[in-house]
Amino acid sequence: MSLVPPGAFIVPDWHRCKDSKEYFNKIIHKKNRKNFGLLESPAMPPHAAVDTLDYKIFISGKSGVGKTALAARLAGLNIPNVHHETTGIQTTVVYWPVKLRENGRVLFFRLQLWDCGENALRRFDHLLPSCKEQVDAVLFLFSFTDRASFQDLSNQIPKWTESTDCLVKVVVGTKFDLFMHCDVAERDVRKFQETWRLPVLHSGGEVSDGLGDVAPILNCLAENLWHQDCVRAGAAGREQQHETGTLP
Asked: Record's family (predicted)?
């Protein structure tokens, strides 16, 4: 499934708008992001109650590209300074509010990020099926400082599209700030985008306000997950009409 253009279904950069503060204040405390456990959620007052949509996101990439660091960045947690291979499956919960363009409806997206070490996936056969089970989207990661991780994308992506095409696929290049050590040229990125018809988002550098640096990735995920749900709902409706004989 191709990604939709930014702003097609949700208000872009809504986190900068005044009417968003009531919602974003529920995921921020003293200018820092709140840490939500598996059973926790933002508490909205009755007059501003919103629906919450749950999704499972798997982070794919070679060892050392920054999968755990990206999950921490998206959740507003402390980013580890030293790389340690993730020994099993690690999950991180991210809440992100969006506003729909069509009707102004506000939704909370609950994104459960799944991160699993590359070596663990190789050693234990049961881990990958667990990660793939009921997954809604995949973040494909490569590092701008590791050309091999960029070249490996052509091996990673087909593995996730063999079973179904109804999967949101987003590519993120990490360590974009380390331009002095860049091993992936912009022309290579453009060629990849043309070949795979997938945009490449960037991540790296110091965390700013905790929102602006993660908003492009989280908005991209939310918008395309919403679009995917709409497509599925439309297909289900047409199938039901066909079964009941209401279609010609």
From this structure: Belongs to the small GTPase superfamily. Rab family.
User: Do 172 and 189 meet the contact criterion of CB atoms below 8 Å apart?
Assistant: no
Q: How far apart are CA 26 and CA 185, in angstroms?
A: 40
How far apart (Å, rounded) are the C-alpha atoms in residues 236 and 51? 21
pLDDT of residue 18: 94
Tokens of 248: 């010609």
* 108 occurs within a structural domain: yes
Cα 33 to Cα 99, 152, 227, distances in angstroms: 19, 33, 27
In the block, which residue shows the tokens 């993120």?
172
Task: Report the domain count for the chain.
Answer: 1
Q: Is 15 left (phi over 0), alpha (psi -120 to 50) or beta?
A: alpha
Q: Residue 96: pLDDT above 90? A: yes
- Per DSSP, the three-state class of 97 is strand
Is residue 7 a part of any domain in this protein? no
